[in-house]
Amino acid sequence: MKLIKNMVNYKLNIITADDLMRYASEFNIQVTRSQAEKIAGYLRGKNFDLFDDHVRGQVIREIAKITGPKTAREINRLFNQFTK
What would be one Pfam family of this protein (predicted)? Predict the structure, then answer.
């Protein structure tokens, strides 16, 4: 489990707007190119631990500021799939 946790957190740390657009399309989440760039800019290089509920909540709140609450809820659902 530790290996998977490290892989997910590493990917989050280096994610690009293109990656986000691909995942959004794959999981039917509505994200614009501009939003994907802002989200990737926020996430990149921060070393977040997506498996920590408190940290994930902070990340989702910041994403909600960028995309709005509806999209943030969808992204949270996706994060929950990756972390459970």
Answer: DUF2624
Domain layout of the chain by residue ranges: 2-83
Q: Which residue has the tokens 């989200």?
A: 39
Instruction: Supply the DSSP string of 20-72, one letter for each residue.
Output: HHHHHHHTT----HHHHHHHHHHHTTS---TTSHHHHHHHHHHHHHHH-HHHH
> Residue 15: helix, strand or coil by DSSP?
coil
Q: Residues 61-78: what's their mean pLDDT?
A: 92
3-state secondary structure of 84: coil
What are the structure tokens assigned to 64, written together?
Answer: 């909600």
- CB within 8 A of 62, min separation 6: which ones? 42
Extract the tokens encoding 22.
């691909």
The H or E element spanning position 2 is: helix 2-14
Q: Reduced to 3 states, what is the DSSP secondary structure of residue 13?
A: helix
